[in-house]
Amino acid sequence: MANARKLDKRRKSVRNIRKITRTMELIATARFKKAMDRATAATAYTRRITQLVSDLASSGLEVRHPLMEPRAETNTALLLVLTGNRGLCGGYNGGVIRQAIPRYNELKESVSNVQLEVSGKRGITALRFRGIEPHETFLNFDDQPRFSEVEAIANRYLAEYAAGRLDRLDVAYTRFVSIGRQQALVETLLPLGGIEGADSGDAKKSSSTGESMYEFLPSAESILEEVVPASFKAKLFKCFLDAAVSEQIARMVAMKAATENAGDMIKQLSMTYNRARQSQITGEIMEIIGGVEALKK
Amino acid sequence: MAELNCIVVTPEKTALETKAEFVAMPLYDGEIGILPGHSPMIGRLGYGEMRIRAGGKETRYYVDGGFVQVADNVVSILTNRAVLGTSVDAEAARKQLAAATKRPASTDEELELRDRLVIQSRAQIRVAARAK
Q1: Share of chain A above pLDDT 90, in %
Q2: Contact B11 A237 (CB under 8 A)
Q3: What is the per-residue pLDDT for A211?
Q4: pLDDT tens figures, B97-126
Q5: Residue range B46-105, pLDDT digits in tens
Q6: Rounded to a whole number, what is the largest CA-CA distance in chain A?
Q7: How far apart are CA A164 and CA B109, in angstroms?
Q8: Which of A77, A143, A181, B30 could bridge A111 with an S-S bond, Cβ 3.0-4.6 Å?
Q9: Residue numbers in A near B110 (CB within 8 A)
Q10: Which domains, from first to last, does chain A contain?
């Protein structure tokens, strides 16, 4: 039978761990709510951009922009990987890395120059461990990514793309589908496949004469020129927001499971401990009785 | 008289939602003033000061490019950043201006980018100076 004192010590340490994991769960819940609120607040902008694009499209303007044209030849590709700065969040970081590495290898085969940029300490170390050195790293994105920081990155990509030093941009991140479902995936952001709202405008155009009630200042083309980069920035920002929300959910779920497991373990350990203690006491009593019996003789 | 409903949206959040009598904002080539009953319009914003008059009081904001959409007395402003004029960081803007003027401008794209940065930082300095 195991030593009762050892078992008690173990039980105490498990209890401490349970305290930590439960606190982490609570923190993750609070952070998730905050991140979720921000993500919902951000949808107002995307919705209005979509509205604007569909208004533009219904004015009879063909939605076209250099950012949306696929390049004839892809010489430089960039993969941006969004992971967390911290672990203890289940398969969150692993999922993104598992999506990113095959895409990275695939790009390397077909494109001569592949850049890799990684946000989050976990992703950086995971890729280094596999012998892949990122060209650029970010550590400043946590549960509340700021638009100004994302915009700085977006502006750099846009400038590189316009200058022809970048032909393709992929982002590996965890998309937030619902509270119960998040999906790690790789999405191509540049060239932009299409802007939401552009198609709905076409449908409207065919039904009406294509005359819009809006007056465009200076012109619809000039506004479109500005809308497309804005929509790209909003899209990239949404990737960061989604990643932040998903990370908190993943941590919440992982810590909830850890707390439950610790509870089960404590139950098990208590049972073994009680049994061990009981048998120790029985053993001691037997010894005493044995001694008394021996003295009687 | 009808009132304008003024909504300022940034990618992070809805920065402002208020009733107003008059709104003035910078378009790409000059200022536009909007009173109730304005015809529907979509415009491209520049960098500069936006003034919102409500109840005789005027509030000044700095807007950082974007768009404005006017329809049915609703003015929606989509901008990257909307901050109160008093909280614009003139020092940072001056630094940005100094850095921008040093940028190389050998190609058309680079020239365009530099012009944009210069205009943006000058507008910030102007708004900050006026808010004092």
Answers
A1: 65
A2: yes
A3: 58
A4: 888 888 887 888 778 888 888 888 888 888
A5: 999 999 998 888 899 999 889 999 988 999 999 988 988 888 888 888 888 888 888 887
A6: 119
A7: 10
A8: A77
A9: 163
A10: 4-24+256-296 (1.10.287.80), 32-252 (3.40.1380.10)
The mean pLDDT value for A18-40 works out to: 94
Instruction: Output the average pLDDT for chain A.
Output: 89
The answer to whether the CB atoms of B78 and A52 lie below 8 A apart is yes
> For residue B61, what are the CA distances in angstroms to A200, A204, A225, A293, B77?
34, 36, 25, 97, 12
Interchain contact B28–A (C-beta under 8 A) = yes
User: Is residue A204 over pLDDT 60?
Assistant: no
Q: Please report residues of B whose CB lies closer than 8 A to that of A223.
A: 42-44, 67
Angstroms from B79 CA to nearest CA on chain A: 9
pTM above 0.90?
no
Chain A touched by B72 (CB under 8 Å): no
- 3-class secondary structure, A139: coil
Indicate the DSSP class of residue B6.
E
What are φ and ψ of residue B43, in 5° steps?
A: -130, 160
pLDDT on residue B100: 85
| Nearest beta carbon to residue A214 from set B9, B14, B41 | B41
Tokens standing for residue A195? 């802007």
Q: Please state, in angstroms and rounded to a whole number, the distance separating the CA atoms of residues A53 and A51.
A: 5
B13 touches chain A (CB under 8 A): yes
Q: How far is it, in rounded angstroms, from Cα A142 to Cα A22? A: 21
Query: Residues A228-232: contacts with CB within 8 Å, 24+ apart?
Result: A228/A65, A228/A67, A228/A68, A228/A192, A228/A195, A229/A67, A229/A158, A230/A49, A230/B66, A230/B67, A230/B78, A230/B80, A231/A49, A231/A53, A231/A192, A231/A195, A232/A67, A232/A154, A232/A158, A232/A189, A232/A190, A232/A192
Contacts for A10 with CB less than 8 Å, ≥ 6 apart:
A269
Question: In chain A, positions 188-217, which contact chain B (CB-CB < 8 Å)?
Answer: 213-217
> Residue B117's closest CA among B104, B129, B107, B106?
B104
- Helices A4-58 and A198-207, interaxial angle, to 10°? 30
Mark yes or no for CB contact A213/B71 under 8 Å.
yes
Q: Are A2 and A276 in contact (CB under 8 A)?
A: yes
A222 interaction partners in chain B (CB closer than 8 Å): 28, 44
Q: Which residues of A touch B41 (CB under 8 A)?
A: 214-217
